[in-house]
Amino acid sequence: MTIAEVVPSLLSGLDVPGADNTLGLPRARRVVLLLVDGLGHELLRAHASHAPFLSSLPDRTIDAGFPSSTATSLASIGTGMQSGEHGIVGYTFEVGDEVLNSLTWTRASERDHDLRRTLVPEVVQPHPTLFERAAAAGVAVSTVAPLLQRSSGLTRAVLRGSWFRGAAGFGDLALGAVAAVEQDRSFCYAYHADLDTIGHIYGPDSEEWLLQLEFVDSLAARIASRMPAGSLLAVTADHGMVTAGERIDFDTEPLLWQGVRVIAGEPRVRYLHTESDEVLSVWREFLGGRADVLTRDEAVDAGWFGPVSPLAVDRIGDVVVAMKDAHVVVRSQAEPVLSSLTGFHGSRTRAELAIPLLVHSVPSV
What we know:
It is built from 17 helices and 19 strands. The chain has 365 residues and is an alpha/beta fold. The chain folds into 2 domains: 3-241 and 349-361, Alkaline Phosphatase, subunit A, CATH 3.40.720.10; 247-344, Gyrase A, domain 2, CATH 3.30.1360. The strands form 5 sheets. The protein has a 7-stranded mixed sheet, with helices on both faces. Strand 5 and strand 6 (110-114) form a beta hairpin. Helix 9 runs parallel beside helix 11 (207-226) and helix 10 (194-202) packs antiparallel against helix 11 (207-226). It is globular. 52% of the residues are buried. GO terms for molecular function: hydrolase activity. This is Type I phosphodiesterase / nucleotide pyrophosphatase.
């Protein structure tokens, strides 16, 4: 059971053709899906006392998919596919001659270099979204998310097809989500980012993160309390998070450079596009038990990406490095801000992959 199955299961209750309720969720004709960035199942369970409302809901765990990264999971939410099908295979990945930062839709090495014209989002991810399918079936589909995401490359690529309402804060997000499901056959996707941001900066077990979790719990409770009779609130996440352990710095380890044409991904999962067959053995020996280092074919055959289409194959890289425990491969010179963070995600540990799926049904009058 993966994140890709969440929206189809919810849309089945709205009678959208082809939407299968594989997760067996309650049927409702007014649905809000709240996605809390960074709310891993393990973290929520460990800190249940800070989230009494969310922890009171039936506890169910699903898989975020690999890599356990925001852009990838949001693409799975929006398309109902895993990363090997929709092709948004990580935080950064190679597309043609560019390394795309899929969150900002800019060149990975230049955050101000907008790639929406040269890497058209609707071409990079060409599959119809679930939102488009639902809207075509007569469902009133809305997205409530931060204002700056309205016309972002990622929104266009994986969330297109809904009416977008920009939210400036908690109150705006809550009231916007409730207003979006006032009419019959309505679906709202609402997105909250700050818990993830706090986790990256301070760590997912910090006092700052715990206080933010309390705010998130209050947000979810307030949405639930204002929703109309007979509606349904579902809460999930895109990944969990770990606090960084050992930092291996690619930029200061010349041995790791040899034969590597492009390094993409993020600190917990790296894609190596290579010019030498020796890269695999060098990285395996250097990292030892700190990572799973596989060829693309090995990772695909192991099912890491789900079914893999021609669209995604070259984006994955010749070698896939998935870090174990809490180790990270940073780039202190090329990615100074990213390398300095405290919390990370992207790899295959349960702390990163396991996400909650919580459902609150509002009783009918």
